[in-house]
Amino acid sequence: VGRGAAGRGLPVPLVVGHRGAAGYRPEHTFGSYQLALDMGADIIEQDLVPTKDGHLVCRHENDITATTDVADHPEFAGRKTTKTVDGKDLTGWFTEDFTLAELKTLRATERIPDVRQRNTLYNGRWQIPTFDEVLRWAEREGEKRGRPVWLYIETKHPTYFRKLGLGLEERLAKALRAHGRHRKGAPNFLQSFEPSSIQRLGELGLRCPKVVLLDEPSVRPWDFVEAGDTRTTADLLKPEGLEWIVGFADGIGPWLPQVIAQDESGKLGEPTTLVRDAHAEGLAVHPYTMRNENSFLPLDFQVGKDPDAYGDVFGALKAYF
Ligand code: G3P
Ligand code: CA
């Protein structure tokens, strides 16, 4: 992966620290981002959602129930609510109902503490990072290392937030411009499961590489649902779908089984034609997400429950590919 129009000049394969080093530290914290960088990740991934007062913060979703200690804050008990996000009814606490100052009083927690090296040891250590803080951190780390720190930035629920008057793309464009990261060749990829978000980022003059994420085949991107567009992900995976995507994006981010077929037991096996088809259109292919439970990797990254015994996981991955 990493070949094609996007990612030229970067090493192949690229290792993206997905939500940082999320197998070892609570996701989307500076603990997680810093560890991923120190472990040798080429790129660090952020998911973006907004606060009530319009700041971009790094969370995988706007529901912060599972990844913060918000439930332990009696002053926010009344903020717990039920709402519909992209057609799903959810109950919890949501970033768009908190100001940044309020969110900063919370601490990040591990989402799934019982999996592999994950644990609760680091709960409470880090705040929720803002995207501005990440940009400043990347600049400092880049200067220290003598090479830019690449970021892989995702807009989460962009149509939902646009309807709330909290458009993600304008805020992202402003932040990237302030750091000179809007230009062609700037050290960041932009990604979204909603193609219209990627189109909007292009309209806002962002020339850095942009990637359309592809969900499971039966899923309709939420912006398609809102616009009455009946196409599903399966349609976007076809050559005509890829031809449409290359009109405004540089790459696709398919779900892993779309590039390596999965049998009934979930075991991954033979490559599909998707990489070839996408490369024929000039699209880069950045699949998500490589985990050691995907049995096609003949590597065992499970090194027990010692949270600091992570070893050279990324080096092993690179050597394998
Ligand atoms: O980079 C692709 C990946 O980030 C999409 O999956 O749900 O972890 O954001 P998700
Ligand atoms: Ca993501």
Automatic annotation (TrEMBL):
UniProt keywords, alphabetically: Glycerol metabolism, Hydrolase, Signal
Catalytic activity: a sn-glycero-3-phosphodiester + H2O = an alcohol + sn-glycerol 3-phosphate + H(+)
Enzyme Commission (EC) number: 3.1.4.46
Keyword Signal: yes
Annotated GP-PDE domain residues: 13-321
Enzyme class: hydrolase
Protein family membership: Belongs to the glycerophosphoryl diester phosphodiesterase family.
Record protein name field: glycerophosphodiester phosphodiesterase
First and last residues shown, out of full length: 39 to 359 of 384
